[in-house]
Write a structure and sequence with these properties.
- The protein is built from ten helices and three strands; from the N terminus they run ααααααααβααββ.
- The chain has helices at about 5-20, 30-40, 45-75, 80-90, 95-105, 115-130, 140-150, 155-170, 180, 185-200; strands at about 175, 205-210, 215-220.
- α8 crosses α10.
- Among the domains are: about 5-75, no CATH class; about 155-235, Structural maintenance of chromosome 1. Chain E (Arc Repressor Mutant, subunit A, Orthogonal Bundle).
- It has a three-stranded antiparallel β-sheet.
- β2 and β3 form a beta hairpin.
- By secondary structure, the chain is mainly alpha-helical.
- Helix content is about 60%, strand content about 5%.
Length: about 240
């Protein structure tokens, strides 16, 4: 009989007994690892060792049951009875229900490459969504932005290409402050210039340099091979 194997079995039994008696975390027992260790000595067992092996196996089975029960308890803490939830919802008035929905609603629009068609779809979505939300601070500013988009989106692709060429020529060969550049023609044209500039960035014709510590952003003329493929979110 291998004494090292017997010591291994005894350690497994003591560990399982400690988990049960002291009511500690059952997941400290490596079930899969200990089962492999018990299986490794099966060929060298005598009758006494076989009994010890079976005893250790039963202890591990009991620990597995404790682990299963622990998982159920943890999951129950995250569970909210649908009936109780329905009662709580029925107790809310319409205003509070709408307010709760708007606070939790996080619509996400994602597309690998922006196009005029995609911009039109996004615009229509947000315009229709505005009819079902509560009024918020800054309503006038947001309405102005949507009106600007309404003027931009009907543009033909050829018109957009012409605007892109104008902005690219306007940039010259130096480095320019991003916010100064998009606001050069005033607030009425700010959103438009930012949108056209975003298409230039997407094509790799304009590069971006950022200094997050000073909250500064610079743009410069570039070529596609000089611009890495990454996304940059720039506020208007």
């Amino acid at each position: 009989m291998n004494s090292r194997y017997v010591e291994l079995i005894e350690r497994i039994i003591r560990l399982c007994d400690e988990v049960v008696e002291k009511n500690i975390d059952p997941f400290i027992v490596d079930v899969k690892g200990n089962l492999k260790k018990l299986r490794a000595g099966l060929t060298e067992m005598d009758e006494r060792t076989l009994v010890m092996n079976m005893n250790a196996l039963l202890k591990i089975i009991y620990v597995i049951a404790l682990q299963q029960e622990d998982v159920k308890k943890r999951a129950s803490r995250l569970y909210l009875d649908p009936f109780l939830m329905e009662i709580r919802l029925m107790g809310l008035d319409r205003e509070r229900l709408a307010e709760s929905f708007l606070k939790s609603f996080r619509p996400v629009a994602e597309n690998e490459q922006s196009t005029m068609g995609f911009m039109r779809i996004a615009y229509e979505y947000w315009v229709n969504l505005r009819e079902h939300r509560l009024p918020v601070v800054g309503e006038a500013a947001e309405t102005g932005t949507l009106n600007m988009l309404a003027q931009i989106l009907p543009m033909e692709e050829a018109d957009l290409e012409e605007e892109m060429k104008k902005l690219l020529d306007e940039m010259g060969s130096g480095t320019i402050d991003y916010y100064d550049f998009i606001g050069k023609e005033g607030e009425d044209r700010k959103v438009f210039r930012a949108l056209v500039l975003s298409f230039l960035m997407m094509r790799g014709l304009v590069g971006v340099a950022q200094d997050p510590l000073r909250n500064r952003v610079w743009i410069y003329r570039s070529s596609p091979k000089e611009v890495g493929k990454h996304s940059v979110a720039l506020p208007v």
